[in-house]
């Protein structure tokens, strides 16, 4: 009984502190604080959706350096992404508002330019969120079609653009329905999303080397030192282009900022969510890329020319049934990315834009 009372009193104190912090910023609390610290982290980490995101962006790293770009390009870019995230985390700790990036822009800019700059940042962020939802859901539809191809006899199924677009529309509409269930449901789902993401990553890191035939296993010199440039750019520039893979994967960590007003103890939970999501994604993503580099074989041209490079690598290692089992979870996690992005970024961002910029 005493424990329950103490816990309730602590929650009330945190809620009051959250509201008072917003008041000092001239910002009135509007939303209910439904997200715990883990769930706030879950929003950023589930939108990153590590393994399915890497599956969607391998075509940036394989032709721009091959194994070296996958392993070392990822490591270099992740460090710079973490530096950006740490700067954002510091701002989020000082001003954990749902307006986020554009509220900070307005507060820290000169009076002469603050309205214009806040408007640009606000609507650029909204456009980016809309594009992000489309990108994630399109990636999900492509992965569903890849599963259909893998499951077909002799992998003879070749999905048309129209069929892929139809699946894309269905995914978007289903996410719209899911968003109607409300914040409470989405908050509770974040723990499931985090666990499934981490287990999927660890399963691939461990199972892929165990299942790969010996003839497809690469030496350390190839996996860590081979540089293959299919695009024709100078090697140095091609290596920089490979940074697009981690940049497209470890992104949208500002999603935790946009739900600051819905997070309990936001001044602590939000910055830790940002730094934690980037750090874990950087480490696990590097391990996944190392595993792929050691288990992809040396025929990089065939992998690069396939519709879905990671599915091709999995098929060579796991076979048809094993690939379908793993790929089904990849599709589910990709779908979860879209639900988190649509509910927590798109709608929250648009709400805040309307409230703040009008």
UniProtKB/TrEMBL annotation:
Localization per Swiss-Prot or TrEMBL: Membrane
Membrane topology: Multi-pass membrane protein
Domain of life from the UniProt record: Eukaryota
Stretches that traverse the bilayer: 41-62, 74-104, 116-136, 162-181, 193-212, 236-257, 269-290, 310-333
Keyword Transmembrane helix included in the entry's annotation: yes
InterPro entries, sorted: AA/rel_permease1, Amino_acid_permease_CS
Primary localization: membrane
Organism: Somion occarium
UniProtKB keywords: Membrane, Transmembrane, Transmembrane helix, Transport
Protein name: Amino acid transporter
């Amino acid at each position: 009984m005493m424990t329950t009372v103490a816990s309730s009193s602590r929650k009330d104190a945190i809620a009051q502190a959250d509201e008072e912090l917003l008041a000092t910023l001239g910002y009135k609390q509007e939303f209910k604080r439904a997200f715990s610290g883990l769930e706030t982290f879950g929003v950023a980490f589930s939108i990153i959706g590590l393994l399915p995101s890497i599956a969607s962006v391998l075509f940036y790293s394989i032709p721009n350096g091959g194994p070296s770009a996958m392993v070392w390009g990822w490591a270099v870019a992740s460090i710079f992404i973490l530096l950006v995230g740490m700067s954002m985390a510091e701002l989020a700790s000082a001003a954990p508002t749902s307006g986020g990036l554009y509220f900070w822009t307005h507060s820290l800019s000169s009076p002469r330019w603050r309205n214009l700059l806040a408007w640009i940042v606000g609507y650029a962020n909204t456009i980016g969120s809309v594009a992000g939802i489309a990108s994630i859901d399109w990636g999900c539809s492509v992965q569903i079609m890849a599963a259909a191809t893998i499951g077909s006899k002799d992998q003879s199924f070749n999905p048309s653009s129209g069929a892929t677009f139809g699946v894309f529309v269905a995914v978007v509409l289903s996410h719209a329905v899911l968003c109607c269930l409300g914040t409470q449901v989405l908050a509770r789902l974040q723990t499931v999303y985090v666990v499934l993401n981490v287990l999927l990553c660890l399963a691939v890191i461990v199972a892929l080397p165990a299942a790969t035939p010996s003839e497809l296993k690469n030496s350390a010199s190839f996996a860590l030192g081979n540089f293959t440039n299919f695009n024709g750019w100078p090697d140095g520039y091609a290596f920089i282009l490979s940074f697009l893979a981690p940049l497209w994967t470890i992104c949208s960590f500002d999603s935790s900022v946009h739900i600051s007003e819905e997070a309990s103890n936001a001044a602590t939970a939000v910055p830790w969510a940002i730094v934690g999501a980037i750090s874990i994604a950087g480490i696990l993503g590097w391990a996944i890329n190392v595993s792929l580099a050691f288990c992809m074989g040396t025929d990089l041209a065939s992998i690069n020319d396939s519709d879905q490079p990671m599915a091709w690598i999995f098929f060579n290692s796991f076979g048809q049934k094993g690939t379908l089992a793993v790929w089904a979870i990849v599709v589910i996690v990709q779908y979860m990315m879209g639900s988190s992005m649509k509910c927590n970024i798109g709608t929250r961002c648009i709400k805040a834009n309307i409230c703040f910029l009008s």
